[in-house]
Design brief:
This protein has 459 residues and is an alpha/beta fold. It contains 14 helices and 20 strands. α11 runs parallel beside α12. This is F-box domain-containing protein.
Length: 459
Amino acid sequence: MILLALNDDVLTNIVFFLSCRDALSLSATARHIHYIAKRRVHTSAELHFPMQTPRFCAYMLDDVLDRAQRLQTLTVTSKALSVDGGAFSADSSSADALADLLEQTTNLRTLSLGCASALMKLDERIWPAIADLRTLEDLTLDDMTTESTRLLPTLKGQPHRLRMRFAHYPSVVPDIKPLHSVWNLELEGITMLRDPVKSTWPVWPNVRRLGLENTSVTMSALLHTFPNVRSFVLGRASITEPHWKLLENKDSQLTCWPDLDYVYGLPYYFGNFGTGDWPVCCPVQWLNLTAASWEKPQHRQPFLRAMNVLPPTALSFRFQDVGTTSYSFFVDLVQTATRLRGLEIVLVIPANHGASDFQWLEGLMLSRIVCLKITLDRSSWNCTQTIDPQKLVRTLSSVQYVSLPYFGDANRLGEHRWWKAVGRGIERTVARVPNRRGDRVLEYMREPAYDPATNLDGV
């Protein structure tokens, strides 16, 4: 097929899937496609360097129709907004130029601004220009103050994703005016008062995904402010309640959400360097603990305690093969996490560790896991020991689908393969299946719609 023989509508759809850099390269190949490809170039921009903002804005405003009004995604970092690259300052020329551009970008969908509060003080046109963006879907405001957030309800657009990082910690959540169109909310550098929750505190009723970083909150405040959360992404934060021991009091009030679809957490909450108690206490469909440093053996007992109050159906976590204690850990995991059906292990094999026989996998013999995926941590890609998928499905009688990496193959680092168990008892063997099929099975088990009675072959 000759590319240039296609009509302009088809070429426009093809170019849409290219990155802006690739579209720019394509625009230099032929005169016929030059104009079509250049339209894609002007849809997205990221500014990272001092004094880049005024020049970019002047270029876009030089042709409002074919440049400024085609812009859909704009990222302007704090460094690009300040003369000296400082994080909490902005220069007036950048603020004025950006205000001029935002007043003309009527089709902007994604906007990320550094030095947001400083910009608003330098040029009073900044926020009205943002508020007039009726097509805005994704808004990121860096270095904010709670005073600036009081302007949020004036937005004429309906952004579904909002990310805010506050410049002056602590900034108090009850002072932030809610935006009811937002279902994906990320907050960094905020606190919630430890005083009793008041009925006058604001409520974000439509937030389904909540991300917290560098926060100090109480779970009771979270439950009041974000009552309908389904996905909880937890960075380094201090949640003072509830600890898992509090659930022993049957007369206590609700201490967490009834259940969650997804939880991502850092190992900060396990072991001696964190609180030692997992702050979320409810059933979770998919628990993701693949963050760095989780593999430390001293975290295992706190982790197992957390499984009592956070029983997942699908679990992803990092695991360090340390020999004799690994088998007993998996035995305890099976006895504790009785709802577990899908398991993804990011395997860490220490450089000074001898040959591994992977006997710890036998600790899963009594489990009810039906889908098992093992991947290698980047530091362990040179591991030459292998796991036999056929031996694995004979050892773990409940497993129906299994995925393993390419052990020791320098040309296939980071890749994986899927097998399906076939037959019964000692006749059980494996058959290769396409990766897209195995990935879909694991993805389905992570979804709230997962039904254990479903025949996975039909997924």
